Amino acid sequence: MATDVQVPALGESITEGTLAQWLKQPGEAVAADEPIASLETDKVTVELPSPVAGVLIEQMAKEGDTVAVGALIARIDQAGAAVAAAPAKEVADAATNPPGPAETPLPREDEHAPSADHADLTLSPAVRRAVLEHHVDPSKIHGTGKDGRITKDDVIAAAEAIKSGTPAQAGAQAPQAKAPGSEAKAPPPEPRPSPGNIGERAEERVKMSRLRQTVARRLKEAQNTAAILTTFNDVDMTAVIDARTRYKDLFEKKHGIRLGFMGFFVKACALAAKDVPAVNAVIDGDDLVYRNYLDVSIAVSAPKGLVVPVVRDAEALSFAEIEKAIADFGQRAKEGTLTMEDMAGGTFTISNGGVFGSLLSTPILNPGQSGVLGMHRIEERPVAKNGEVVIRPMMYLALSYDHRVVDGREAVTFLVRVKEAIEDPTRLLIDL
């Protein structure tokens, strides 16, 4: 009996996706709930699980096709589940009853193809996709992740090692003896390139991913619909750096997470939003909607682009809860396991370009929000303090805002409140 596989609901307001990759091919056995394909939506890449155990017998869409929610994309033969189990039994029988010398030997298995041994390994979806893409055997990879787990980088490194052509990894064969007189002659010298053809002017055309298309569309939408203006300030990071240095070991020992800068800035923005609620408001028709909660979209770099998972009710969270949420988002962004719910909503955004070395920028608003704070790199600069020039670790801050909702006085006040809280973190404790 064949079972139809349809595109499931992908999230609120999402009606279609792109079939990014087939993880199973026709004729291959699949287990119930085992991913058979990955779908790329406007926000995340999700895996499509098999509803039943059996054998994939038909694919109705090609990689790169746009598929609507509810569309039929594959069929699985449940009766094939029993047939698929037969090869495993034959392998077991062959191990206990090896064939005699008169029997035809089985063809040699590709030593780089994934073996049955890797079924016992715990692989994340991103690692599993990399294994299938690069055709490597995970059982032969030494994991460098936590508890010896295999990471995506480990898979890529193993694939590169195979491509290098070493006998142990690429299955190189020993050179065969040459017949007398068949010695290879040295190739003629290559002609020197003329000045007119030195170097190649190559181009590569790559289709934009659905995520990149969505980012492009939404950013342009923000520019077209919002009156974006940016105001700047700088902040002395001395107090925050000192607090981290003093308490980082105790903090990590108690909470199991490192104390980072982002926790301070999330708390500072939550405090500033109480004084300047317009930065956390939004236009809805002819109304202004003010929120008494702060859901902070944290810009995180992922393999396929920038994503913005949301730390919800940030004003009510502790430093440890904020840092744990951000660390979890960062890890799952690398693994490609963020969900729609992780990125839905968001009332204010924080983007830290400083981790990439940015000195200054003018961040663009996310649609549906009226403020975004841009953090930048910390660098020592001479500043005037109490009539003296001293060297301090300084960071530029940029607040982009919708001038239809937030006026200049409110924007500057918000940024000053953030600056005050960072330069004197005690304000975060006494709500000042």
List the topology elements:
Elements: E1 2-6, E2 16-22, E3 29-30, E4 35-40, E5 45-49, E6 54-59, E7 66-68, E8 72-77, H1 80-84, H2 86-96, H3 125-134, H4 152-163, H5 167-170, H6 210-225, E9 228-236, H7 238-255, H8 261-275, E10 282-284, E11 287-289, E12 296-298, E13 300-302, E14 305-307, E15 310-311, H9 319-335, H10 340-343, E16 348-352, E17 371-385, E18 388-402, H11 408-423, H12 426-430
Parallel strand pairs: 12-16, 16-17
Antiparallel strand pairs: 1-8, 2-4, 2-7, 3-6, 4-5, 6-8, 9-18, 10-11, 12-15, 13-14, 17-18
Helix pairs in contact: 3-4, 8-9, 8-11
Task: From the alpha carbons, calculate the radius of gyration and give it in angstroms.
Answer: 29 Å
How many helical elements? Answer: 12
Low-pLDDT parts are 83-92, 99-120, 167-182
Instruction: Calculate the mean pLDDT score and round it.
Output: 80
CATH-scheme architecture of the largest domain = 2-Layer Sandwich
CATH superfamily placement of the largest domain: Chloramphenicol acetyltransferase-like domain
Which bin fits the share of residues in helices?
Answer: 25-40%
What percent of residues are in strands?
15-25%
Order of helices and strands: EEEEEEEEHHHHHHEHHEEEEEEHHEEEHH
Form type: globular
Descriptive account of the structure:
This protein has helices spanning 80-84, 86-96, 125-134, 152-163, 167-170, 210-225, 238-255, 261-275, 319-335, 340-343, 408-423, 426-430, and strands spanning 2-6, 16-22, 29-30, 35-40, 45-49, 54-59, 66-68, 72-77, 228-236, 282-284, 287-289, 296-298, 300-302, 305-307, 310-311, 348-352, 371-385, 388-402. With 432 residues, the protein is α+β, with helices and mostly antiparallel strands. It has three domains: 1-96, Beta Barrel (OB fold (Dihydrolipoamide Acetyltransferase, E2P)); 116-165, Irregular (Dihydrolipoamide Transferase); 228-430, Chloramphenicol Acetyltransferase, CATH 3.30.559.10. The strands form five sheets. It has a six-stranded mixed β-sheet with strand order 9-18-17-16-12-15. α3 (125-134) runs parallel beside α4 (152-163) and α8 crosses α11. It is globular. The N and C termini lie far apart (68 Å). The model is unreliable at 83-92, 99-120 and 167-182 (pLDDT under 50).
